[in-house]
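We close this part of the discussion by returning to an individual protein. Part of our work consisted of pairing the sequence of a single chain with a tokenised description of its backbone. The amino acid sequence and the backbone structure tokens for this protein are reproduced below.
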Amino acid sequence: MLQPVYKKITNSFLYRRRDSAFIRIFVPFETDEEKAVQLGERFVKDFYPLIQQYLPQ
């Protein structure tokens, strides 16, 4: 699914690639942290296949 860190470092040195990024998912909650975590995980599971088609391979 995700490239190992060593592959990113190798690509950076050999091919001068800098196409990595972090995507932060923020789910506010007041009382039920576990429910917020489940909501965030569900979002990532739905979102990742869609965003993956736009990320470099």
